Amino acid sequence: MAETYGTQRKAAARKHAAILEAAHELFAADPAVSLNEVAKRAGVGAGTLYRHFPTREDLILAVYRYDVRRLVDSVDDVLAAGSAKDAFVTWFETLAAYIRVKHGLGEALHNAALQNAIDETYAPVTAAVGKLLDACVAEGSVEPGHDPGDVLLMMGFLWRVAPDERGLAQGRRLTEIVFRGIGARH
């Protein structure tokens, strides 16, 4: 009996993760996508989706938390892929993409529920920014002493640029301006 229960829990966890991944992809493409399409992409029935996420808002908030956790957990991998400065830029561009999706969901979220999700993810995000800043300081591309919360706020321009090639280019130009401001003085 205990073995069956453990197997069922593992299956439920796999379905939960499949739903979150499918919703992440589909919400990024179309914030108005139907939950039936999410269930279909995840390979589960609508009933399974609703057992995990009773409302659309529940799913949207879960995807937001999932995306933030994945992004926070990616810092070491991003840092290992190249220079700390490149990791900083890549990480913030990914954060901007997640935030654009969240803003695209606009009316689907109630302000109080979204604010709770943002409040609960702020500390891990600023800790990740701190880790990126520490790596940039160690590399010599950033002066020490910058507050991660200040840098996060300053980088907010990235989620306001257009989500196309021109916007990406503009974001990179603006990021270079940021680095000139916080960069190491030689």
UniProtKB/TrEMBL annotation:
InterPro entries in UniProt: Homeodomain-like_sf (IPR009057), HTH-type_TetR-like_transc_reg (IPR050109), HTH_TetR (IPR001647), Tet_transcr_reg_TetR-rel_C_sf (IPR036271), TetR_SbtR-like_C (IPR049445)
A UniProt-annotated Pfam family: TetR_N
Keyword Transcription regulation listed: yes
Entry superkingdom: Bacteria
DNA-binding region: 34-53
Record keywords: DNA-binding, Transcription, Transcription regulation
PROSITE patterns from the UniProt entry: HTH_TETR_2
SUPFAM superfamilies (UniProt xref): Homeodomain-like (SSF46689), Tetracyclin repressor-like, C-terminal domain (SSF48498)
HTH tetR-type domain sequence ranges: 13-71
Protein name: Helix-turn-helix domain-containing protein
Species classification: Bacteria, Bacillati, Actinomycetota, Actinomycetes, Pseudonocardiales
